[in-house]
Amino acid sequence: MKNLKILASFQTRKFKYGGHAALLAAIVLALLIVINLLAEQVPVKIDLTENRMFTLSGQTLQILDRLEEDVVIYGVAEPGKEDRMVDEVVQRYSRRSPRVSVEYLDPYRQPAFIRQFDPEGKGIREGSYIVVSGDKYRVIDKWDLFNINYQNPFQPEVTGLVAEERFTSAIMYVTAEKNPVVYALKGHGEEDLPFNLRERLRHENYELKELTLVAKEKLPEDLDLLLVFSPKRDLTAEEEGKIREYLAAEGRALFILDWYVADLPNFQSLLRGYGLKLQPVVIVEGDAGRHAGNPAWLLPEMKEHEILTPLVNERMPVLFPLAQAIEVLEVRRRSLEFTPLLTSSAKSWGKVSPNPTTAEKEPGDLEGPFTVAMAVVDKEWTEATGELESRLVVTANSRFLIPQFLLQVPGNLNFIMNCLNWLSDREEVISISPRSLIHLSLRMSGWQKLTYSGIVVILIPLLALGTGVVVWLRRRHL
């Protein structure tokens, strides 16, 4: 009798529903286990971070796809003590290209192997990386993999991850036959390049040298790019002729100038040869959304150009304080192509007085908008040489590169480096930008807080309760 009751219990509605639920739960659990095991075997990872911190840029992928030499990236770290963020980035290089491999060196078990990359004996600290191809190598210090804000010297803040920029630059360095050489013009009261800019040039494989034109018949043969940074005295006629000759032969130059410091007729003459003239005015911005609190501290509009595309995409503004204006001459050569890079708004005006007593618009002041940075391409064709292309970038301001702005306004340093990369035909590295490590908190108004609280605390529980009641009533009547 008991056996019949037990058998009958297996045929009740409750057992059927319970059995179906248990079977469904077992199937779902088995599927999760199988999916998890398969996911471990598939070499594909999806970057779900807020700013795609571990996703390699298109420029890096192109460089990896074109590699023709083998590259080894050595990490200096004890087993299990690798920086997880940096390791995730570097492993993506090896997964993308079969020519890139990643190995870790234990500094306590392999010190002799590590020392061969430290000929000066300075030491390679744990957490650093060494990128090697053939006989060339580059050591990336652990702190060079991050952007660090030293505004508070007693509590530096790590603000960004620049691992991709460093690794891609190192790969380009060790696989390149030649790296670009930048000569900074000297002898006219030029200012020294800011430390941040010099370091960025080094990281992006530029070789920086100084150039004095006195007693030189012509410019150096290894000159790839001429940099003129805030001269206080004018060129001589002979120096102007040498620079003009260099530019005519597919030369590249970046002029960062401040015209209100002195009258520089030979510099002006040099630029007039490329259809440009600098207006001796100080620009005042009348649009409150286009200045940084001070109407003479411009947040200029960015135009369409390869130099500016990454800055626009990253919403990275450029700050130009006390800027002057660049004018395109009406009479100029037809071979010249002009692209304004940075401009003020139509509400801006130019103070014609070199020492204005007020920022307010006065009679005689010039109407905006004004161009404060210009790119020029000169394409000439002759039967003897074919097409020759020269490139120039001119800014009517040097104050945007003072250390204060380079530290606080990342767009300024990125803008000048993008200019140098464009002048050097290195567009592939223009848009590799740092990944921010600053996490912004969610900000909601009082009304938004009340609305979302009502949804979570009242509406969702009521929906769950109503669904349960409906299911209970349906099962009760079965």
Task: Give a quick set of tags describing it.
single chain; 478 residues; alpha+beta; Glutaredoxin; Rossmann fold; 2 domains; 8-stranded mixed sheet; 4-stranded mixed sheet; 22 strands; 34% helix; globular
Sequence-ordered SSE layout with sheet pairings:
Elements: H1 2-9, H2 13-41, H3 58-65, E1 71-76, H4 84-96, E2 100-105, H5 111-115, E3 129-133, E4 136-140, E5 146-149, E6 157-161, H6 163-175, E7 181-186, H7 195-203, E8 207-212, E9 225-229, H8 237-248, E10 252-256, H9 265-272, E11 276-279, E12 282-284, E13 297-298, E14 301-302, H10 309-313, E15 320-321, E16 325-328, E17 336-343, E18 349-351, E19 366-367, E20 371-382, E21 386-395, H11 403-408, H12 410-423, E22 435-436, H13 446-476
Helix pairs in contact: 8-9
Domain tally:
2
Residue-averaged pLDDT: 82
Net shape: globular
- What portion of residues is helical? 25-40%
* Strand portion: 15-25%
Q: What is the C-level CATH assignment of the largest domain?
A: Alpha Beta
Strand order of the largest sheet: 8-7-9-10-21-20-17-14
What is the annotated CATH architecture of the largest domain?
3-Layer(aba) Sandwich
The biggest beta sheet is recorded as: 8 strands, mixed
Distance between the first and last residues' Cα:
28 Å
- At the third CATH level, what is the topology name of the largest domain? Rossmann fold
Helical stretch tally: 13
> What structural class do the secondary elements suggest?
alpha+beta
Could you list the spans in which at least 5 consecutive residues all have pLDDT below 50? 436-440
Secondary structure tally: strands: 22
Cα Rg: 31 Å
